[in-house]
């Protein structure tokens, strides 16, 4: 780490020695979020603290940092009498790459550990195809009768087949414990043992859903081309979790077979999550043969499924355009509204006429989506249609506001004048969108207009004006935002805070830190989110302190801290 890097984090490192317990805990959490490998050494010393919460937070932080040298310290806690601390240690170990510390984990798997602890440690090693791990797993096969340990070791050889284990696995395939026997037969099937493979095929038809799920989970870890018949059965299993796991088995089939399976499966599947997975698989196929099934999905009330279906049909490209255009006029309105977005993504001369006609339709959302389609196509003819919408006496404000945004996305300065004419529109959405669009076009007169609009009656207009001013180099906007942050209206304060978050300039950090004391949850929430967007290290300890305070649900702070971390790293 450079000297400048050390100085940036020095206050957090110094906090580890603080006599103030709260400051120490916050500093530990901060170093964990920063994930600088060299910081692990400073944290390790605190593992001997008599304060259990301090130790637990250090273990968590070491897990986040992932320095391989920390593994030897964390494994000492996996059999701790404090169950919570032991669980924290195990969770921390899962985040490590053990490539350079395999020996440490292998030694920790010694037979003096309780079986439940050994099992968890063995599971951490299952992904490593290494002779040392294989040797350990082989020892487990020959030296224990504990069913859970045996199953864990056998699962390793399912993932990493070894012909040398054939005899051992054959003996275990007749074990009195059904779990051990099943795992051994699956492992033997990976070695092309015909008897074992036939046994697995029979068990796929078992009435016991747990058995079927174990088979599904095992096969996706080491699929063979011979597994296609088994996966065909799993694709139609009555348990949705098994079908969800089995989706990965589609890769074993040829392109034509996958299309046939997907067409049937999309038509019969009732679970929303699996349907979404299947639509995403369909997108990767780019096959027009899946059009009918995806078309039906556009009528779904599930927005995520609708969006995925739009992407999947659009991925088919020009080869599906003619069919869409032939059927377009006869489609139900709800499908038309989605299909126009598909056409916008595909683009091309054939599509222009339909998008242009949809811009003049009577139905609001068809028109709005047609504007979105036109914006994506970047067709000069369609752009002129958008200009006509703005120059005409368009009464639908949503259409007008969307058209303003669409023209801004063209980055064509020729449209600056017509967009600027909307800055005085009576509707706030139109004014706000106009500021954003002109900012994208770098309209030279925008700073003067924004100075006036900073005092607009609408908070979103004021926010967009502030952001546009900052983007054009007018840093004096911070003084205006600070004034807005002290306004009596919670809406104005919330808007000021939101603007500072969008600007992402560390100049605004002191203002935002003060807003953490605001009594209005709306303002407070915006302040936390804005600080997370900025990624200023000065905000780290205050954000962590707010998370410990628990004014809002912990999930909110976790999301904010994740975003904060991403911002720092970028």
Structure characterization notes:
By secondary structure, the protein is mostly helical. It is built from 36 helices and no strands. Among the domains are: 384-464, Leucine-rich Repeat Variant, CATH 1.25.10.10; 475-570, Leucine-rich Repeat Variant (Alpha Horseshoe). It has helices spanning 3-15, 21-34, 39-44, 52-65, 71-74, 83-93, 102-108, 115-125, 131-143, 147-159, 166-172, 178-190, 194-203, 209-221, 228-234, 240-246, 255-268, 272-285, 291-297, 303-314, 321-327, 333-346, 349-359, 364-377, 380-391, 397-408, 416-420, 428-441, 446-453, 459-471, 477-485, 490-503, 509-515, 521-534, 540-549, 554-569. The longest helix is centred in the C-terminal third of the chain and has 16 residues, at 554-569.
How big is the Rg? 30 Å
Q: What is the CATH topology descriptor of the domain at 475-570? A: Leucine-rich Repeat Variant
CATH C-level label of the domain at 475-570: Mainly Alpha
Helix content: 55-70%
Question: Summed up, what is this model?
Answer:
With 570 residues, the protein is mainly alpha-helical. The chain contains 36 helices and no strands.
């Amino acid at each position: 780490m450079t000297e400048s890097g050390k100085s940036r984090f020095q206050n957090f490192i110094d906090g580890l020695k603080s006599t103030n317990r709260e400051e120490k805990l916050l500093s530990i959490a901060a170093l964990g979020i920063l994930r600088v490998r060299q910081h692990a050494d400073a944290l390790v010393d605190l593992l001997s603290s008599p304060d259990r919460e301090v130790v637990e937070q250090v273990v968590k932080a070491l897990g986040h940092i992932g320095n391989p040298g920390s593994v030897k310290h964390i494994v000492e806690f996996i059999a701790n009498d404090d169950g919570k601390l032991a669980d924290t240690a195990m969770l921390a170990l899962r985040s490590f790459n053990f490539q350079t510390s395999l020996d440490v984990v292998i030694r920790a798997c010694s037979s003096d550990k309780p079986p439940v602890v050994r099992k968890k440690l063995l599971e951490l090693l299952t992904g490593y195809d290494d002779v040392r791990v294989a040797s350990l797993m082989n020892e487990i096969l020959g030296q224990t009768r504990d069913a859970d340990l045996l199953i864990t070791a056998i699962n390793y050889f399912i993932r990493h087949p070894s012909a040398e284990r054939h005899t051992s696995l054959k003996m275990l395939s007749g074990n009195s414990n059904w779990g051990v026997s099943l795992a051994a037969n699956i492992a033997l099937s990976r070695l092309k043992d015909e008897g074992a493979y036939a046994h697995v095929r029979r068990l796929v038809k078992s009435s016991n859903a747990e058995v079927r799920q174990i088979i599904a989970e095992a096969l996706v870890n080491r699929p063979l081309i011979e597994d296609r018949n088994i996966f065909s059965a799993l694709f139609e299993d009555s348990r949705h979790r098994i079908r969800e796991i089995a989706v990965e088995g589609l890769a074993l089939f040829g392109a034509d077979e996958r299309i046939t399976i997907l067409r049937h499966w999309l038509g019969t599947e009732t679970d929303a999550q699996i349907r979404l997975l299947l639509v995403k698989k369909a997108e990767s196929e780019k096959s027009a043969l899946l059009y009918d099934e995806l078309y039906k999905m556009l009528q779904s009330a599930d927005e995520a499924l609708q969006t995925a279906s739009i992407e999947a049909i659009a991925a088919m490209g020009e080869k599906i355009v003619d069919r869409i255009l032939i059927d377009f006029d006869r489609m139900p309105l709800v499908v038309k509204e989605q299909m126009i977005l598909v056409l916008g993504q595909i683009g091309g001369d054939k599509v222009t006429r339909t998008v242009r006609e949809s811009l003049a339709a009577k139905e609001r959302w068809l028109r709005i989506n047609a504007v979105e389609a036109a914006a994506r196509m970047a067709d000069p003819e369609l752009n002129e249609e958008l200009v006509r919408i703005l120059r005409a006496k368009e009464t639908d404000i949503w259409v007008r506001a969307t058209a303003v945004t669409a023209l801004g996305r063209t980055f064509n300065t020729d449209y600056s004048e017509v967009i600027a004419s909307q800055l005085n529109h009576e509707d706030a959405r139109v004014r706000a969108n106009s500021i954003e669009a002109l900012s994208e076009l770098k309209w030279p007169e925008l700073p003067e207009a924004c100075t006036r609009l900073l005092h607009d009656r609408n908070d979103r207009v004021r926010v967009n004006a502030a952001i546009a001013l900052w983007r054009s180099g007018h840093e004096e906007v911070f003084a205006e935002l600070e004034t807005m942050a002290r306004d009596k209206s919670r809406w104005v304060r919330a808007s000021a805070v939101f603007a500072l978050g969008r600007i992402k300039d560390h100049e605004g950090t002191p203002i935002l830190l003060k807003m953490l004391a605001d009594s209005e949850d709306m303002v407070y929430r915006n302040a936390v989110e804005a600080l997370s967007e900025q990624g200023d290290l000065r905000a780290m300890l205050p954000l962590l302190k707010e998370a410990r305070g628990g004014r809002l649900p912990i999930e909110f702070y976790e999301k904010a801290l994740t975003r904060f971390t991403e911002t720092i790293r970028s």
